[in-house]
Design brief:
single chain, 123 residues, alpha+beta, globular, DUF1318 domain-containing protein, YdbL
Length: 123
């Protein structure tokens, strides 16, 4: 259990460092993600969007409100995850999985989250 906690803490720190020292590209990603955050929070609070088991946003209903926002956010998340994976010498899938676990821990009550089996639940 301690190994998982150390990996999680390490990824959190690295995720933060990517934004702090990643240069202009990271600054652009950070700016875009910050700009989208209020829309994402709104979509989550409406129960339309949740966090999937791979660390990305996904629609939880047939209604695809905010599709462009979700697609752009996921594209930026994937770029960050790839950067972390490359820096740490691990697979993209490993970073996605660990990030998804962090997201679950930080999720607010009422947020939709996806289990590894693909089913959705509210925290």
């Amino acid at each position: 259990m301690k190994k998982k906690q150390l990996i999680s803490v390490g990824l959190i720190l690295l995720f933060s460092l990517v934004f702090l020292v990643g240069g202009a590209v990271a600054d652009d990603v950070k700016t875009r993600m910050k700009r989208r955050l209020p829309d994402i929070v709104k979509l989550k609070s409406q129960g339309l969007v949740g966090e999937n088991a791979r660390g990305y946003l996904a629609h939880v209903t047939a209604k695809k409100t905010g599709y462009n926002i979700i697609a752009a956010e996921n594209k930026d998340r994937k770029a960050v995850y790839r950067l972390i994976a490359g820096q740490q010498g691990v697979t993209l899938e490993k970073v996605e999985t660990l990030r998804a676990l962090q997201i679950v821990k930080k999720a607010k009550p009422g947020d939709f989250l996806q289990k590894p089996d693909g089913s959705w639940y509210r925290k």
